[in-house]
Fold:
Amino acid sequence: MTETRGATVAEPAAGGAAEIPRLGISGVGRDFHTKHGVTHAVSGIDLTIPRGEFVALIGRSGCGKTTVLRMLGGLLPPTAGTIEVDGKSLWRDGRVDSSAVTKLGVVFQEANLFPWFSILDNIALPLKLRGVGKKQRRRRATELAELVGLTGFERSYPRELSGGMRQRAAIARALSTEPDLLLMDEPFGALDALTRERMNLELQRIVQETTSTVVFVTHDIPEAVFLADRVVQMTPRPGRINTILPVDFPKPRDVELETTPKFNEIVRALRRELDEED
Ligand SMILES: Nc1ncnc2c1ncn2[C@@H]1O[C@H](COP(=O)(O)OP(=O)(O)OP(=O)(O)O)[C@@H](O)[C@H]1O
Structure:
């Protein structure tokens, strides 16, 4: 296990050739101008994420995690730096490149399903918006419902499902367009501990089956260590990267991992970093 402070970790290139990373973040910052003055929410973020990597973003409330995710998701333009998806700029002159944004899937804390659509229609909605024919999108949505363990609930409505099931439907919807990059902001934050543990296992399986690259925001340090290949810890005012911690436990990981001394040592090391901010 190596530790890197405030640095970009260069990725080893396969076969010696320089591989274009899935995500290249360079010098990214975001200021907010309000009537009370300027908030430097995020500053000098450098991070390179290769294909297939799972990166967890942790840090105290207000350190800029959501701001970073919104910039990566094409929802908020950076005021400094560049973001590249597969080597292509996501933002140009404050405007998002629509061809780059099609490579992204986003899941938030709230599932945000449409209550008047069935689960199948919710999952298929992004495909409908892209003009995919009814038969094809229903077939794909049915496959995705199976992938996230919702077979048998395709005709149900969101209100008839539990919070965990709704979140699984939201993940299936985000995956429907086969995104190259899945961005998740506290997706399991509203769930009880047991459901959250189950969702972590499910997410791990789904990510392995779809070979997705993931940026996952969480407050929960054990959750971050359980899921991630690297944990990126941010500090506030302005939000910066403080530590990048590789987590090299083999995958798939089992919940038993959380009882091992090495797992707890990593969790404690990250907690210490957060405590040092006080
Ligand atoms: N639209 C906005 N206008 C003004 N300030 C903002 C805006 N959005 C975020 N901020 C400020 O930017 C900083 C970072 O906020 P952000 O929501 O990204 O933090 P966070 O780490 O995601 O917090 P939490 O863990 O509580 O969700 C905060 O100081 C916040 O007040």
Notes: Residues 32, 34, 39, 41, 59, 61-67, 239 surround adenosine-5'-triphosphate (CB under 6 Å).
